[in-house]
Amino acid sequence: MSEAESGALPPLRLYAYWRSSCSWRVRIALEHKGLAYEVRSIHLREGEQRSDDYAGVNTLQQVPVLEWEEGALTRRLTQSLAILHFLEDAYPEKALVPADAWARARAWEHAEIVNAGIQPLQNFATLLLVDSLGGDKVAHARGVIAKGLGAMEKLAKETAGAYLVGDRPSVADVCLVPQLYNARRFDVDVDAYPTLLRAEARCASLPAFQAAHPDRQPDAPSAEPS
Ligand SMILES: N[C@@H](CCC(=O)N[C@@H](CS)C(=O)NCC(=O)O)C(=O)O
């Protein structure tokens, strides 16, 4: 039985960057579940993720990575959705997935729209590639974000209560909030998504979402060029 399964909480370390939306998802879950964690900042804009040392932590050279010790073993988990699944299984209190199977699937459906249908297409590395191929990286980012958020808005019309799926915050909101922040950074007109904005406003009143906000992170500069 792992320490997590036995209920003992190992000290958790999160390799993250203050404005990384995928790191932000994991912070929200950790905060929501009341789990203590230490942040190891990886400065993406300075390229720290591309160091040989960090490749030993995450072969894909991305954040987030959740790390902890289990006896002599160092456990490391990459991929924010895998981390959310693990946290849900290991620390089911204050669940971030609905109990009902259909609602749970819909919550993951929202999460995957962000995780697979938006974020990888507008990630820093992807935009550098678009740029290097002579494309308009901002137009590209705007297009993929608007398309994905449009799909979520349509889905949310069926799933939303006070939050994106029903009346409790879920992994759907955990993925939505950082993605809306990115949308604004790219000047996407978020007023086109009123159901998403309502869920976001609810989340903004919750301490876990507040504590996980990029501006509250130890590596957040007082002013950073966008
Ligand atoms: N699917 C991965 C995506 C991770 C990812 O794209 N991380 C971004 C920050 S949100 C990153 O590390 N980018 C740095 C780079 O691509 O060089 C996850 O959900 O964890």
Short description:
The chain has 226 residues and is of the alpha+beta class.
Oligomer class: single chain
> Helical content, roughly?
40-55%
**How does the overall form come out from the CA principal axes?**
globular
Tally of structural domains: 2
Strand order of the largest sheet: 2-1-3-4
Give the CATH class of the largest domain: Mainly Alpha
CATH topology of the largest domain: Glutathione S-transferase Yfyf (Class Pi), Chain A, domain 2
Binned strand content:
5-15%
Could you describe the largest sheet, including whether it forms a barrel?
4 strands, mixed
List of distinct ligands in this structure: glutathione
What is the typical, i.e. mean, pLDDT?
94
Low-pLDDT sequence parts: 1-6
CATH architecture of the largest domain: Up-down Bundle
The N- to C-terminal Cα distance equals 45 Å
Task: Please tell me how large the radius of gyration is.
Answer: 17 Å
Give helix and strand order, one letter per element, not per position. Answer: HEHEHEEHHHHHHH
Number of beta-strand segments: 4
Helical segment count:
10
Structural class: alpha+beta
Describe the fold and architecture.
With 226 residues, the chain is of the alpha+beta class. It has 2 domains: 3-94 and 212-216, Glutaredoxin (3-Layer(aba) Sandwich); 101-207, Glutathione S-transferase Yfyf (Class Pi), Chain A, domain 2 (Up-down Bundle), CATH 1.20.1050.10. The protein is 52% helix and 10% strand. The chain is built from 10 helices and 4 strands. It has a 4-stranded mixed beta sheet with strand order 2-1-3-4, with helices on one face. Helix 7 runs antiparallel to helix 8 (171-185). It is globular and about 50 Å long. The N and C termini lie far apart (45 Å). The model is unreliable at 1-6 (pLDDT under 50). Glutathione is lined by residues 20-22, 44, 49, 62-64, 79-81, 115, 123-125.
